[in-house]
């Protein structure tokens, strides 16, 4: 095993510290840039300048704490971004799944709705045609019945003439005849009509 010389130890330690200082400055600059660009959209320029001055003063007063907080923030931002991506993808997959689920069952319902609509429409057409046929059959039966009744029986006017009229109807007919003649009838007609009664 080779022994490490003291001069090499000092240069190794100096390199580590210089790298830490460079990393601290880099993290500080990057954090300030991110905070600055984010705050441009939210706060006024005066508030941003005061905050920037406060952060710079805190960094100058406590550089190690600032580096620790910056490293923690930088490392915590990775899981935070992963978690936010996971949540966003879960929401998108859930919404996509819900949309596919809804569209699938809507399609199934639409199929059954179309079948029910086809059946009810067919029943409606059948009932309409049945109604038309029934109406035509009733008209045909009425025409056939009236034709048969005219050939076998005398007309209604003939039946009325053949039936004897009651006394009250005879009187009314006589009065009607007198009114049509302009009440020009003679006394003899009255007497004859009374005898008939």
Notes on the structure:
Residues 177-197 are annotated as: Disordered. The chain crosses the membrane at residues 64-88, 108-134. It holds the Pfam family Promethin. Keywords: Membrane, Transmembrane, Transmembrane helix. By secondary structure, the chain is mainly alpha-helical. The chain has a domain at 12-61. It has six helices and no strands. The protein has helices spanning 6-40, 45-61, 63-152, 156-162, 167-180, 187-196. α1 (6-40) crosses α3 (63-152) and α2 packs across α3 (63-152). The protein is rod-shaped, with a radius of gyration of 57 Å.
Offer a concise description of the structure.
The protein is about 90% helix and about 0% strand.
Spell out the blueprint of helices and strands.
Elements: H1 6-40, H2 45-61, H3 63-152, H4 156-162, H5 167-180, H6 187-196
Helix pairs in contact: 1-2, 1-3, 2-3
What keyword list fits this structure?
197 residues; 88% helix; rod-shaped; 6 helices; mainly alpha; single chain; disordered N terminus
In angstroms, what is the radius of gyration? 57 Å
Unreliable stretches: 1-9
Shape: rod-shaped
Task: Give the termini separation.
Answer: 164 Å
Tally of helical segments: 6
Order of helices and strands: HHHHHH
Largest sheet entry = none
Average pLDDT, all residues = 77
Number of strands: 0
Summing up helix and strand content along with how strands pair, one would put the structural category as mainly alpha
> Into which percent range does the helicity of residues fall?
over 70%
Strand content: under 5%
Transmembrane segments: 64-88, 108-134
Keywords: Membrane, Transmembrane, Transmembrane helix
Region (Disordered): 177-197
Pfam families: Promethin
